[in-house]
Amino acid sequence: MYEGVGALKALILKLTDTQQVALLDSIFASSRDETADVDLSGPVNRIVWVLLGMSTLVVSTRLVIKLRTTRRLYLDDGLMTVGLLLGWVHAAFLQVSFDNGLGRHVYYLEPDKRYLALKYGFISLVWSYLCPLFGRLSFCTFLLCVAKTDPQTKKWPIWTFIVLQIIVNVLASVLLLSTCGTHLEDMFLLRLGDYFTYCLDISVQTNYAYFAGAFNTLTDFFLTVQPALLIKHTKLATGNKIGVASLLCLSIIAMVAALVRTVAAHKLNDVGDYTYELTPFVTWVSVELNVVLTVTSLPLLRPLAQEARQLFTKTREAKEPWDDTISLRSIHTSGLDDEESKTGAGVGVVALGSPQTPDGFVAQQDMSQVIRTVEVQISYEKNETPMIHACLVGLVQGQAMERLAGR
Length: 407
What we know:
This protein is mainly alpha-helical and 407 residues long. It folds into two domains: 6-308, Rhopdopsin 7-helix transmembrane proteins; 328-404, no CATH class. Helix content is 62%, strand content 5%. It has helices at residues 9-14, 17-34, 41-70, 75-99, 111-147, 156-177, 184-188, 192-198, 202-232, 238-248, 251-264, 274-277, 279-295, 302-313, 385-393, 401-404, and strands spanning 342-351, 371-380. A two-stranded antiparallel ribbon has the order 1-2. Helix 9 (202-232) runs antiparallel to helix 10, helix 9 runs antiparallel to helix 11 and helix 11 runs antiparallel to helix 13 (279-295). Mean pLDDT is 79; it is low at 317-354 and 399-407. Residues 62-306 form the Rhodopsin domain. This is Rhodopsin domain-containing protein. The chain crosses the membrane at residues 47-65, 77-98, 118-146, 158-178, 208-230, 242-261, 281-301. One of its GO terms (cellular component) is membrane.
């Protein structure tokens, strides 16, 4: 049965092109006699598109919530959008490969279909590195942003993983495309003599796949621990901390998917029945990239969950006449001439019905009226982005001034 020709390298290099073709045809004929024509493409194809549909729904909802809540999108949203687009490119390449025989034994495929199945399946692996790269970069950017609300959090570890993520995964993509130099077509056409002559040893590709997978698994572990440290530093109640952690620490799921993908990379260790044997690997590649897109976007769906809970319980707090709820923007200076952040504390006294001067202070108070005194600490920041993101995911809860100042 045709399981790989790495052991025949020395023999193949001694044969002429015609003899190599005859040897491969003989191996294929023998394999067809021993193995049934099984097609795994159906269930795998459905998994790919169902997962992509789910991640598209989550990411799209995230973008809509951001636009509705903040009236704009941020860098982390742009990176996530790029990641989602690359996920669609990956799925499109896989679809072409499935249509031409990915999922079936290579020796049952016609030469033209075998070529297309191998070509598009191989190139899909390039996007399988770049798509989750942008998903992880998006979450790292988000963590950098909310870390600015916590003086105890060090930012250099996040920057370190950002740089290493780019280097490791871009290099993996480059290595895939350059593995045979200008003779990549020889691999798709199964010209074994030229493949063994011009292409890197298959162990190089396999070992780097192990390394990249291990590093991506480590990154997902870091992206699980780092939010936990941010949550630990907050003054939220224990129950609220657990709720926020259940959203922000979901990268542990991506870590499991990345680990399984790394283990499945052993199928790359020989020039073999790629169209059939790589199908489980392709499945876990799709699981990993879609899980990364999904779990790094779910925390920003928290406002939607809050609205759904309010509709379900059908209870809304009645607003009192002296309600002190304010918008996030109202506690930050928005002028372009602000050069630095300032903090301060004070006591605000508001008398209901009392006239106010243009600068907002009460001009006169009637002691017979209801008076409410609130002591607050106010933070004025030129850049509202960190606090906005912290509020969106629940690291800072509520809009009341004293709650925003509670970290």
